[in-house]
Amino acid sequence: MKVLIVVDMQNDFIDGALGTEEAVRIVPKVAEKIKGFDGKIFFTRDTHEDDYLESQEGRNLPVVHCVRETKGWELCPEIEALRKKEDTVLDKPSFGSIELGHKLREYMTGLSARGEGKVESITLVGLCTDICVISNAMIIKAFFPEIPVLVDASCCAGVTQESHNTALKSMETCQIQVV
């Protein structure tokens, strides 16, 4: 069994408040990855409240984005259309999600209890490579040091191309496989 984590493929990161051309370009690639994926899929959503600018992140990045229940917070339409009822969606208030690690553990425990085998690998795709993808990849690697954690670089985009590449190199150093 394989797991795919689709990180923050939300309107605000694609063509909204923090959107980039690189993010727009990966949407079809991420959609194809989801369509061709045979395994369990988790989606994360960066989720902020109306008081975002008062948070530490808001003071450091004073661009209101991904406020719960706004258009910018929603998964982009191409990705949302591929989400299935059995997929897991996690709203995360920070870059990395400890809850994701716990939900993955619950999922794996259920597989084992039902005699359905083990998770062979966990692959991450999405936005932004240098903030949320790397944060979640590191959390997953800490939770599951013996499960291969992969990042599909062609299905990720960073704030800049330079920071994207730097994040990929950092993940490789931490034994996360960049494919």
Please characterize this protein's 3D structure.
The structure is a single chain. With 179 residues, the protein is α/β, with parallel strands linked by helices. It has seven helices and six strands, in the order βααβααβαβαβαβ. It has helices spanning 11-14, 21-35, 56-60, 77-80, 98-113, 129-143, 161-173, and strands at residues 2-7, 40-46, 88-92, 121-127, 149-157, 177-178. The chain has a six-stranded parallel beta sheet.
Strand content: 15-25%
**Count of DSSP-assigned helices:** 7
Principal-axes geometry comes out as: globular
The major pleated sheet works out as: 6 strands, parallel
Distance between the termini: 19 Å
The value of Rg in angstroms is 15 Å
What percentage of residues falls in helices of 4 or more residues? 40-55%
Descriptive key words:
alpha/beta, 179 residues, 6-stranded parallel beta sheet, globular
Q: What's the structural blueprint in terms of helices and strands?
A:
Blueprint: E1 2-7, H1 11-14, H2 21-35, E2 40-46, H3 56-60, H4 77-80, E3 88-92, H5 98-113, E4 121-127, H6 129-143, E5 149-157, H7 161-173, E6 177-178
Parallel strand pairs: 1-2, 1-4, 2-3, 4-5, 5-6
Brief overview, please?
This protein is α/β, with parallel strands linked by helices.
